[in-house]
Amino acid sequence: MARSKSGGKSGGKKAGYLHGFTAKERQRLREQARVLEPWIYDRLPFARCRHLVEVGSGVGAQTANLLRHYPEMRVTCVERSPIQLAEARKWLPSVPWAKGRYTLAEEDATALSFGRESFDGAFISWLLEHVPDPARVLGETRRVLKRGAPIIVNEVLNATFFLEPYSPRTLDYWREFNDHQIEIGGDPHVGAKLGNLLQTVGFTDIVTRVKVAHFDSRSPAERAEFLTYWTDLLLSGAPSMMAAKRVDQRLVDAMRAELDTVAHDPQAVFFYAFVQAEARA
Predict the structure, then answer these.
(1) Which of 21, 123, 171, 208 has the most CB atoms less than 10 A away?
(2) Within 10 A of 96 (CB to CB), how many other CB atoms are there?
(3) Is 250 exposed, middle or buried (0-12, 13-18, 19+ CB in 10 A)?
(4) CA distance 8 to 128
(5) Residue 153: count of CB within 10 angstroms of its CB
(6) Which residues pair with 213 in a beta bridge?
(7) In 3-state terms, what secondary structure has residue 131?
């Protein structure tokens, strides 16, 4: 998935953001929040949460969802990218239910300026895949949470991606996509590691849930919507990957042609799973 590079530097490795900061990407992030909302907001432990910190808030797309699902909540949004923050400042005022209920802060997620036990909940979504030291981000988040406060973390597990009909050029592109993310300091499989990471930094009551997006001929409308979303996700990485000489235009075009074939096949299958972790500080 994708958010901004709100992590920081660690171990000499600089965090990168594969998807870039274009206007098209900022719109894609809002669309992603809409498409994935049913998977993310199923029985979250925030009913009694009044002041939540969202680490890696990006353009504010998940912020809007959080505020709609929890009308008594206030959210402090932590984001390192000035470009993403500028978009959030521009867009969130247009969200009626968000008025007066959020604060935007330009912060490094590995060195937050807040004091200990400042918040009674935390939310992180599609951030840890982009940072070189996810444990450091989680440890710093735990520091600013009150004892017993809940945290929800959503993260990618890119090894689960499957398409039918068989699409070899798309899989070639996907391999380069993931290898490029690793090369620039991220982890496209970090979702599988959330239990270990949360335990390492002292969280307790850790539960991980595999969230599955599986579409076939039984749900053609949902399948079509998700394939459109997924195509945009894959293409969002193309400029960065082409600049790094990992892919060329021919591979990008071949991938698009395969995805178009999948989209028009009545027997097409799409499968992807990510991991949602819940824990207590």
Answers:
(1) 123
(2) 8
(3) exposed
(4) 11
(5) 28
(6) 272
(7) coil
Q: How far apart are the first and last CA of the chain?
A: 26
CA 109, CA 126: separation in Å to the nearest integer?
A: 13
Residue 93 preceded by cis peptide, ω within 30: no
Give me the half-sphere count of Cα atoms (radius 13 Å) on the Cβ side of residue 75: 30
| Position 51, amino acid | H
Q: Which position has the token pair 């090894």?
A: 159
- List, for residues 239-258, the tens digit of each pLDDT value: 999 999 999 999 999 999 99
Query: Helices in 41-130 by DSSP H: which ranges?
Result: 61-69, 82-91
Collapsing DSSP states into helix, strand and coil, what is residue 45? coil
Q: At the topology level of CATH, where does 9-280 sit? A: Rossmann fold (3.40.50)
Q: Which amino acid is at 165?
A: P
pTM for the whole thing? 0.90
User: Using 50, 70 and 90 to split pLDDT, how confident is the model at 17?
Assistant: low
Query: CB atoms < 10 A from the CB of 219, how many?
Result: 13
Cβ–Cβ < 8 Å for 60, 87: yes
